Amino acid sequence: MEIVWLLLSLVILYFGAEGLVSGAASLAKRIGISPLVIGLTIVSVGTSAPELLVSVKAALNGQGALSVGNVLGSNFFNVGIILGISALIYPLAVKRQLLKLDVPVMILSSLLFFLFFLDFTISRWEALIFVLILITYITYMLITSRKEKPAQKGDEEDEIKMSKHWLLDIFFIGVGLAALVYGSDLLVVNAVIIAGWLGMSEALIGLTIVAAGTSMPELATSVVAALKKRSDIAIGNVVGSNIFNIFLILGVTGLIAPLHTTDINYVDGLFNLGIGVLLLLFMKRSSRLRRTQGLLFLLFYLIYFTYKLFLI
Q: What is the CATH number of the domain that holds 151?
């Protein structure tokens, strides 16, 4: 029966992502904000909901390792697996804003995490800095995006199908997000049961299924966006999620209670920083993330996964 529920969760994730991408793209065009900005904000916050819920609950229970590990694991998965698969499906066009603002901010978040966590603790003051930087980033992005006329065409030839009313767009976004959160939870619960049947250790289940499971909304959203040739939403969702994971999730959870763990070390922080720098270098080389680069992202994640696997 668990296998049936697992398959059902994948169906829910797909249709949730379909509704979210369609609603977000239509709403962006309607209110005069680029789909990239929508992907970096509304879509990113929504698809990061599972990570936020898990980390806040862990912080309230005094489980700092789970909060920090959940965020870092999600960030690795987002770039290594999600962008890797999305680029294999369709070479993703790189907007100038990503190079000038968003990816550098993502790298800044990784750098600050690395520096703050050298003592294996995120204090309340450091968490507050995360939140203040996020507020500044969002404010600046929204102000500048309204000054620019949104592009009439994306990287594909077909026009975005417009909903009859903007409320319908919001409805699709809301239903899509709800389906993504529910579908990812359903997937994790049943995948853990199946993994138990296969004799997988609890640590291995946590490293693979739980980390990947909370990133299922991002994966479903970016893959559907890539299939629709919506590069702006596919990339914006991943970059935005990585920014929100550190600045919002670690910021909020660190304000609830200082996060301390020795289970996460400087090597994890360096991998998190390195994969962001690699993304920036790839983007600077060409105007698209190509399939070969997507393959390299998958390889980068495999190297990290193997490293963690041998430590367990």
A: 1.20.1420.30
As beta bridge partners, residue 68 has none
DSSP string, the chain: -HHHHHHHHHHHHHHHHHHHHHHHHHHHHHHT--HHHHIIIIIHHHHTHHHHHHHHHHHHTT-HHHHHHHHHHHHHHIIIIIIHHHHHHSPEEPPHHIIIIIHHHHHHHHHHHHHHGGGSEE-HHHHHHHHHHHHHHHHHHHHHHHHSPPPS--SSSSPPPPPSSHHHHHHHHHHHHHHHHHHHHHHHHHHHHHHHHTT--HHHHIIIIIHHHHTHHHHHHHHHHHHTT-HHHHHHHHHHHHHHIIIIIIHHHHHHS-EE-SSS-HHHHHHHHHHHHHHHHHHHH-SEE-HHHHHHHHHHHHHHHHHHHHH-
| Domain span at 128 | 2-311
Q: What is the mean pLDDT of residues 259-282?
A: 85
**Number of domains composing the chain:** 1
Q: How confident is the model at residue 157 (pLDDT cuts 50, 70, 90)?
A: very low
Whether the full predicted model's pTM is greater than 0.90, yes or no, is no
